[in-house]
């Protein structure tokens, strides 16, 4: 039996035997975003700059996030902003998206550039994104904070047609980046997990406070705490 026939019989496709969608629109199955939100929390304001039909936007909104959605094509999502991702010059919150794979690296670079230090960029990408010389060079300077791979295959459906494309032979993963994270512990020859700083930041996030660190090698390290008065109880 030919490989193509075998994949058709089991309801799986790698989208490799037909033309790609013109704008590389492959909708993310809702379960993928649900799984991410089981592991990660984000700033209240989230940008989804490759929103498509809104599959990811709707799940984020259901979890209480204030989502700004944009795309180069209006696919009927209420409140969509028709805008190229590269036209966003800055964003004050976090970014969560599934970018067109052919532009994934430049979009990732741009998203990290436009968010403030310490903010997150989470992208749903093929696991194969780990490969390649250009991406290797990028990862050396911008390592992902964490990568989540589901034990069960998740799906991206061409044109959002999950009935026609119910499953996929492609392995996908969530790549979560935090701007400024390098994996180094301040000593150039050694790496650390950064777990202590991460826990401090997550605690501050949950309390709606902020924390940031400024440092200069061989000079100083400054920790800045922003405390929200609304979170204090007066007795």
Provide structural commentary:
The protein has 235 residues and is an alpha/beta fold. Helices cover 24% and strands 24% of the residues. The strands form 4 sheets. A 7-stranded mixed β-sheet has the order 5-4-3-6-7-11-8, with helices on both faces. Helix 3 (55-62) links the parallel strand 3 and strand 4 (66-71). Helix 2 packs across helix 3. The longest helix has 12 residues, at 195-206. The radius of gyration is 20 Å and the shape is globular. Residues 1-17 have low confidence and may be disordered.
Q: How would a textbook summarize the main sheet?
A: 7 strands, mixed
Shape: globular
Radius of gyration equals 20 Å
Estimate the helix proportion, in percent. 10-25%
Features:
single chain; 235 residues; alpha/beta; seven-stranded mixed sheet; two-stranded parallel sheet; 24% helix; 24% strand; globular; disordered N terminus
Task: Give a short synopsis of this structure.
The chain has helices at residues 3-9, 30-39, 55-62, 104-114, 133-141, 195-206, and strands at 12-13, 26-28, 45-48, 66-71, 81-82, 94-97, 120-126, 146-148, 156-158, 167-168, 172-178, 210-216, 220-226. The chain has 235 residues and is of the alpha/beta class.
